[in-house]
Request: fold
Amino acid sequence: MALKNISPTDTIAWKNLTNHFEEIKNSKILDFFQDPKRLSDFSVSWKNFYADFSKNRLDRKTLGLLLDLAKQCNLENAIQSQFSGKKINKTENRSVLHSACRCIASDKILVDGLNVVPGIIDDRKRIKSFSDKVLNGQITGSTGKKITDVVNIGIGGSDLGPRMVTESLKYYKSRLTSHFISNVDGDHVYEVLKTLNPESTLFIVVSKTFTTQETLTNATTIKSWVISKLGKKSVENHFVAVSSNESAIENFGIKKEYTFSMNDWVGGRFSIWSSVGLVISLSIGFENYNKLLKGARLADDHFKSSSIEKNIPVLMGLISIWYNNFFKCESEAVISYSEYLNKLPSYLQQSLMESNGKNIDRNGKNIKYQTGNIVWGNTGTNSQHAFFQLIHQGTKLIPCDFIGFKHPLHNENHQHDILMSNFFAQTEALLMGKSLEKVKAELKAKSQSKELAPYKVFKGNIPSNTFLIDKLNPESLGSLIAFYEHKIFVQGIIWNIYSYDQWGVELGKQLASSVLNEIETKTLENHDPSTSRLIKFYNTKE
Ligand code: F6P
Reply:
């Protein structure tokens, strides 16, 4: 069996955590700092990262019990199983090897007895060669014009990862401008097309299955647009495919040299490391793309070989479980103090929520405890002027991850100091709060009414993790993304679920396809009363 079926709630550690929670639930984080080793024991310095876990509602005993939970759920063996290519994605009978795409040539990773490393290295060489040729003008459009724009057509994992990385690393941008079309919203397609010159644009159709309705619809619309502007023959110069479905690519009219493969052991939401990263390589150049892979590989080494009490993704996963399952927090926020990372929350929404939003365990039984939490967020300081009110003074406990960098990229140090002063201030404000006595004293000093006092109190004691990273670059971003990937894995193992399938997206797809038929034929099948009336209204449009 690739993964053991251990219900976390049956472990001794879970029972101990449940009892311990009662002792500690009202404790103050600030009091934990009386422990002289609080900072050293609750932080990890790794390469250019400083991960501070000390501002959390847990003490040494909690941490010990959480680590016991990880051990009793067989986490260390599970990590080995994943990296060695065991078929841990049992419901799809697949290995989970996105991390293999970060390999070096001397590695050996077996799937069904075959070493997959040479294939990965070949794919990488093809990405390099293709990106180099587009960038140096050897590959041109059908009329001989140099490519200036690339459009990634894909959705979900075939969009969110490449879009987030391209946006996050736009400081390192090549001469190409990248665009992303994901939603099956024709208005958006034409908003993008109207900015483009077809002669100098390359369209990359990214779909692991090459059956996804949104992607194929958008690709077909765009193909007709290109043909209307440049003629039928131009398709082979302007369309590239990334997919595992070779025959469908061929039917679409994309030539072999412009086709990049995908393996079934790379899940869509973890696929930036595979050929799905083509648009990234085009957008920032292959060397930078390779550094992204390197950063992730270093994070893999850390995850595989560090002791669990100093293991960044293990701690991220365990601390999140502590809030989710014991404090019953429904959500967690990710706040990056870099505008470059503005797409990180939507990327994490897919990777965390599509992976761990499961209610059946690895025994096929209904789960009676909470699994995947809701992840959301935005950049700081913007979010301070939006939803931070609720985090500071609302009724919900929302643990936050803060991500910030020591150095700005444009050397605008003065502004960076302002940005980062907010970063530090927010984590401190969440921790410390502001007492009624202090508020009253301030009001008195300003001769203001003390009636306002309760409204100005901050209860504080709100937990956060802080990731202070030297600089945003391809390598540090690669590590950061890989840490979140491994966090997902840790949580899935402990929650005893299968993190790498996504059956929950199927029902809506099926229904949409039959509703489309009803719209096109102006008929109405059996629906619930509300949906029937809605479709009827829609179908009455002129
Ligand atoms: O939303 C479901 C899903 O299967 C995702 O997991 C995947 O990333 C996305 O659709 C796109 O799939 P494909 O790459 O096959 O078009």
